[in-house]
């Protein structure tokens, strides 16, 4: 357990600078994807995820190109080309950072429930087991059909 915590903390510390730059570069595209998808879907919840994927496939690379062009014009063309290659990696660093941070926060909440509100923790465990059994039963029913 302690190795996991140390490794997770180390990964977060190492990724933090790249993740911060990645967030600054990619947050406008992230927000725009949600805005565009919600506007196009107009309440069609079943299509929303597909529209988000398509919008992201357009808006994230467009953002990286715009940032690279701005860097290339303001600084140096070679630095702009380098930026075009590094921007997606920074986006990935931000994604990994926040996914790991979310997992650590979830684990800390679970530990807090286990330590201070054991009855709530046990209730959640029972609920999770019930959901798992229901999913397995559905899988068996679908497999038998």
Describe this structure in words.
The protein has one domain (2-117). The model has no long low-confidence stretch (mean pLDDT 91). Helix 2 (45-74) crosses helix 3 and helix 3 (77-116) crosses helix 4 (118-144). The longest helix has 40 residues, at 2-41. It is an all-alpha fold. The protein has helices at 2-41, 45-74, 77-116, 118-144. It is flat, with a radius of gyration of 21 Å.
Could you give the topology of this structure?
Blueprint: H1 2-41, H2 45-74, H3 77-116, H4 118-144
What would a concise description of this structure say?
The protein is an all-alpha fold and 145 residues long. It has helices at residues 2-41, 45-74, 77-116, 118-144.
Which structural category do the helix and sheet elements fall into?
A: mainly alpha
How big is the Rg?
Answer: 21 Å
Number of helical segments with 4 or more residues: 4
How many beta-strand runs? 0
Poorly predicted regions are none
Helical proportion?
A: over 70%
Gross morphology is flat
Strand content: under 5%
Oligomer: single chain
What's the story with the biggest beta sheet?
none
- Which series of helices and strands comes N to C? HHHH
Q: What's the number of structural domains? A: 1
**Separation of the first and last Cα atoms:** 43 Å
Mean pLDDT across all residues, rounded? Answer: 91
